[in-house]
């Protein structure tokens, strides 16, 4: 992983991500949805929790990282969080499918960061080419308030600690 290029107090770099918003027609898995773009500009005036996983459907991401965010959704909302989003280098169709399998509905937004370009611009990418995965988003979390970074932590190793739901809730 490259060295971190952002810190608490910085303005969040602008980014635009492909996402497939949840609709009821996606619930039975017979439709794929149509990707739309979501810009970080839409987070102006909002409190956002953004967490990143190296890949949808991978063991740690699928079992240990994403589910606690969904389970604690109401706790995040009670602390004033307007948006919870998960970002990964996967395409928007994979992320939408993962979100539906996990039962995210409209609670957590899935954002595609192809080749981890946006994350990489902040030093938040990891080269997993040795495992055949290419460049991925690192495992990290941010709290963003009105586009200002209030918390940013990157996992120091394998597993979920500083980027997990409990760690982020403790910082809100």
Q: Percent of residues in beta strands?
A: 25-35%
Distance between the ends = 27 Å
| Strand line-up in the sheet with most strands | 5-4-3-8-9
Structural class by helix and strand composition? alpha/beta
Spans of at least 5 consecutive residues with low confidence: none
Largest sheet: 5 strands, mixed
Helix content: 10-25%
- Based on CA inertia axes, which overall geometry fits? globular
Total strand segments: 9
Order of helices and strands: EEEHHEHEHEEEEH
Instruction: Summarize model confidence as the mean pLDDT.
Output: 90
With helices defined by DSSP (H or I, 4 residues minimum), what is the helix count?
A: 5
Q: What's the gyration radius in Å?
A: 15 Å
What features would you describe in this structure?
The protein has helices spanning 59-71, 73-78, 92-102, 117-121, 165-171, and strands at 16-19, 36-39, 47-52, 83-88, 109-112, 125-127, 135-137, 140-145, 148-154. 37% of the residues are buried. Strands 5-4-3-8-9 form a five-stranded mixed β-sheet. It is built from five helices and nine strands. The protein is of the alpha/beta class and 172 residues long.
In short:
It contains 5 helices and 9 strands.
List keywords for this structure.
5-stranded mixed β-sheet; 5 helices; single chain; 172 residues; alpha/beta
Write the layout of secondary structure elements.
Layout (H helix, E strand, L loop, with lengths): L15 E4 L16 E4 L7 E6 L6 H13 L1 H6 L4 E6 L3 H11 L6 E4 L4 H5 L3 E3 L7 E3 L2 E6 L2 E7 L10 H7 L1
Parallel strand pairs: 3-4, 4-5
Antiparallel strand pairs: 1-2, 3-8, 6-7, 8-9
């Amino acid at each position: 992983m490259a060295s971190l290029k952002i810190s608490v107090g910085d303005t969040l770099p602008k980014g635009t991500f492909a996402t497939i918003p949840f609709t009821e027609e996606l619930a039975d898995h017979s439709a794929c949805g149509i990707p739309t773009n979501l810009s970080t500009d839409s987070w102006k005036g909002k409190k956002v929790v953004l967490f990143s996983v190296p890949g949808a459907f991978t063991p740690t991401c699928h079992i240990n990282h994403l589910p606690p965010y969904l389970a604690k959704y109401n706790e995040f909302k009670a602390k004033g969080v307007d948006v919870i989003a998960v970002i990964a280098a996967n395409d928007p169709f994979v992320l939408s499918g993962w979100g539906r399998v996990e039962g995210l509905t409209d609670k957590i937004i899935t954002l595609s960061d192809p080749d981890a370009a946006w994350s990489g611009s902040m030093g938040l990418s990891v080269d997993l080419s040795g495992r055949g995965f290419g460049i991925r988003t690192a495992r990290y979390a941010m709290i963003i308030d009105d586009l200002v970074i209030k918390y940013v932590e990157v996992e120091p190793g394998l597993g979920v600690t500083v980027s997990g739901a409990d760690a982020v809730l403790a910082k809100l």
